[in-house]
Amino acid sequence: MSTFTTSDGTDIFYKDWGSGQPVVFSHGWPLNGDAWDGQMRLVAENGFRAVAHDRRGHGRSGQPWQGNHMDQYADDLAELIETLNLNDVILVGHSTGGGEVARYIGRHGTARVAKAVLLGAVPPLMLKTDANPEGTPIDAFDGIRAGVEADRSQFYWDLSEAFYGYNRPGATESEGVRRAFWLWSMQVGLKGAYDCIKQFSETDFTEDLARIDVPTLVAHGDDDQIVPIAAAALKTAQLVKDATLKVYPGAPHGLVGEYEEAFNADLLDFIR
């Protein structure tokens, strides 16, 4: 297993496949780097170097009591990039990972970054406020906290249905996909999982997005039940200077089926 130790003593697991221009993947909550395996293999087979880490508290990384917040997630990403001495990096973030990418650029700039991809990403702000009426009410996030605290195993299994849009009429459900989601989710420490809910829902990334000065692909399914597009990609594409917006009709939050195939093609086109 490949790991490095952050400056605060947390071990971070990562995978490093292939060679060429680096593509660094940041995963969503409550998953880990394995959620990107299909895309990692795709880019590595097409002449790129694919790197994906497990966020602190998630997967095979350490589970510290402290540091489960967006600034630290971004700093961990920075330490990964610096440890591997990566340059001309293409950053790819899904959901919470999209927030991590935005906050990384907000805190560390784009000296090492060539492009960015934000897929189903949480920026600029998920939470409904007076200034963000399209957002999701706090009650929904309180419900997530309650579910994780009371019976996280059942909660993650139930969440997988809407995550992949299997609750929609005519959807072809894969029990295997749901089982994989559950397995990855159960690897998250309870403390890290709980803390991260506040981070993906209440962090305002508006200023971070304004600092992105590299070509950026903003991709989102318009039937995303987890991160609704109106408060996310539609706003992000207006805030990022050099953004290309790609909307996938009827697509859910999680990459699956025809949605995954379409995104994979767009990802390759964008990074080439």
TrEMBL record:
Gene3D superfamilies documented for this protein: alpha/beta hydrolase
Alphabetical keyword list: Hydrolase, Oxidoreductase, Peroxidase
Pfam families: Abhydrolase_1
Domain AB hydrolase-1: start-end pairs: 22-254
GO molecular function: hydrolase activity
Family: Belongs to the AB hydrolase superfamily. Bacterial non-heme haloperoxidase / perhydrolase family.
Protein name: Alpha/beta fold hydrolase
